[in-house]
Specification:
The chain has 5 helices and no strands. The chain is mostly helical. The longest helix has 24 residues. The model has no long low-confidence stretch (mean pLDDT 76).
């Protein structure tokens, strides 16, 4: 019984990876999936149209999809590391000054 479950799990994982590889380039074309799902699950046309409208507005203003914007926000930037070094330096100097006053 356990062997059968293991084989079924391996088949599901293999099928999932195959589908993921097959549909890898479809992320930009699936912008309507969210609003269509919202319309189908809730039946709320306003929510679906608001979701689609905001996605289109963000894409037209920034030139990137909302997913690309979030990705850019989460990436570490060179300026962040420079700021981090500066803050660490200031903390070390402050600690040295506090040790001398005691």
């Amino acid at each position: 019984m356990c062997k059968v479950l293991g084989i079924m799990i391996i088949k599901k994982i293999t099928l999932g990876l195959f589908i993921l590889g097959l549909l890898n380039g479809c992320i930009q074309n699936s912008a309507l999936v969210g609003p269509i799902y919202a319309l189908g699950s809730t039946g709320n046309v306003y929510q679906a149209s608001l979701s689609f409208g905001t996605n289109k507005a963000i894409t037209s203003v920034t030139g990137k999809s909302p997913l690309e914007n979030v990705d850019n926000l989460l990436k570490a930037k060179k300026q962040d590391s420079m700021l981090r070094k500066l803050v660490k330096k200031q903390i070390k100097e402050t600690r040295k000054k506090l040790k001398f006053t005691k």
